[in-house]
Each structure stands twice: as structure tokens, then as C-alpha cells.
Prior knowledge:
The complex is a heterodimer. Chain A is 62% helix and 2% strand. The radius of gyration of chain A is 20 Å and the shape is globular. By secondary structure, chain A is an all-alpha fold. In chain B, helix 3 (69-85) packs antiparallel against helix 4. By secondary structure, chain B is mostly helical.
Amino acid sequence: MEVVKKAFYKSVPVMAGYVILGIGFGILMDNAGYGVLWSFAMALFIYAGSMQYVGISLLTGPASIITTALTTFMVNARHLFYSISMVDRYKDAGKYKPYLIFGLTDETYSLLSVDDEPELSADGGSRISADGGSGATADDLNKYRFFVTLFDHSYWVTGCVLGSLVGSFLPFSTEGIEFSMTALFIASYTEQWLKTRDHVPALTGLFGTLICLIIFGSDRFLIPAMVLITAVLTVLRSRLERNSSPDAKTAADRSAVEAPAVSEIDSGKEAVR
Amino acid sequence: MTGDIYSAVLVAVMAAVTILLRFLPFFIFSKETPPYIAYLGKVLPTAIIGMLVIYCLRATDLTAAPFGVPELLASLTVVLMQIWKRNSVLSILAGTVVYMVIIQMLV
């Protein structure tokens, strides 16, 4: 199946990262006393790396339901914006649409939101089409996206389950492995910094949150931080929009949103967009 | 087994909210994305990552040994590694290893 093969190749860069991070999550869950079934369920139904890591602290707290809901909202709010920018692209996805939307993680988003999807023609050949590949093989395109999403999801589930199984049997102490989550975000932050010219959003996020941490304490600072960040970025909107470069979008992409590709993991070198 | 049931409830809440966040825009914005929302879509994700960095480091105690030094060194490792190789997996591995080694050496 040509479509499945192409989808697989596309997803390979994600494989190493998702498996490694998934293993890290599985190990931490095991350390916290939650077995394979828990890791599997979270990987399957939540399917959000950073949120799953945060979720371990929520589970061991245990946190209240309200705190869990709000924290999930805040940690995963950026997924709102990934989805917003894919509304147009997924509008004709038919039966694939629910799963495509469900699987819109940082990494899958960065794979599928770029206009380099292969044009899948009936004779099995393919060309990279600059306009996102519309035409007679629309269903093939959606099938391709479906399988990319599916492969990514399976790598993640595999990693989480593996980590959970292997966690107790490692020959070295895993003390301190929870830092992998911190490292994940620092790596993403650094990559974002290197890729953009306007650092105001990045600095707003970092220092706005730091200020709220100092004022409100480590138990209550997330909500004020979100409010502060949104308020500051709203106030600075005209200044920031004036300074930003015009969207370099191709003609077929009618959505005016270009969310920065906040990849949780990049298994290879950063692609130049 | 109330503990297990409660944990299951929390997992369900996490899943439900995440699913809601991913699906909502497809119901609300069928075509026109308000410019303000589009703008937030550009700037908010980066800011949230900054928020998450602080969130992860929130429990670091700077007033008692080891005064946040392991976190500092490990974080620096991640940053430098990322600048050098532009590969997140490598950076995460390097930083985590540094942190684990320092922490385990201090015990």
C-alpha cells in the first residue's frame, strides 16, 4: 500500500523521540507505583507527552478534579491553536477526521501542517506537490494523514508500555530521570528561540510565569500566569504584529494562522521551513 | 480500591479536557478565524513553553543545598546541546544524564 508506506517514512523521524520519551514516562509511572495498564491507558487516551508527565504528579498528589482539569487545560491549551490552524486542512477528511483531530500532538502537527505532503496519484508514483496536494486523490491524502497520525500514536504507546515494563529491571538507578520533562521543555524553548526573531512571546512566557510563581507560590501560580501572559501579549499585539514578518504561506493554505512548530521531540535535524 | 478509581477519574479528566481542546476549534471555527485568535495562535504556544519550563523547575529550592546547582548545570547542558546539534532528543538525553549523575553523586 503506497499510502501506508509513504506515511511510515514520514513518521520515522518521530519514532526515536516518541519511543525514548515514552520510555521515560513509563519508567516514572512505574516508580510512582502505576503499572503497565495505567501507562498504556494514558498513552492511548490522553496521548500528550508533556501532559502525561505532569499527570504523574497529579496522580501521586493526588490532585483534586478541578486542579487536574485546569492544569490539563493550561498545559494543553496550545493544542487549541494547532487545531485552529488545521480546521481548513482537515475539513474534508470525512471518516478520518475524528482520529486526525484526536492525534494532533505537537510532533504530528509539525509533520502534517507543512505543505510538503506527497501527491499520491493512481499509478502509485508520487511527487512532492508545493500546493499541499489537492485533486483527484483527496481520499488518499486523508488516508496518508491518518496513517502518519496512527504510526506516531503507536510509537508513543509502545514507548510508554516499554518503559513501564522495563522500569524495574534497569541495572542503574533511575533517580533524577524526571528531569527529562524539564529538559524537553528547555530544548523546545531553545529551539523556538533559535528559530524566531521576535523573542517577546518567549520572554513573556518565561518571566511572566516566574513573577507569578514568586507572588502566588508553587501551588497556585499557573492560572495567574496564563492570565498575565495572555494579557501582556494582547496589549503588545499591535507592536508585535508590526514587527513580525508576513506569513510566507503557499497559495492553497487559506488559513492565516502559522503557529510556531513547537515540536516536543525532533528525532533528527531541524527541518528548515 | 478507592485510590484506583480516583486515579482512573483523574486520567479520564485529563483525556476529556485534552480531547475537548483538540476538537473545539473544529466546531467553533468552521471557516473564518478571527484575527485575534490567529494572532494568539502565533504567540501563545511559544509563551506556554516558557511557562512550562518554570512549572517544571517550580520546586527548586535555591536557599538550601544543593541550591539549584544540579538544575542549573543540567539546564545549561540542554541549552548548549540544542544550540550545538539542534536535536531535541540528544539535548534531552544529555541534560537528563547530567542531572541524574550529579544528583546520584550527591547522595
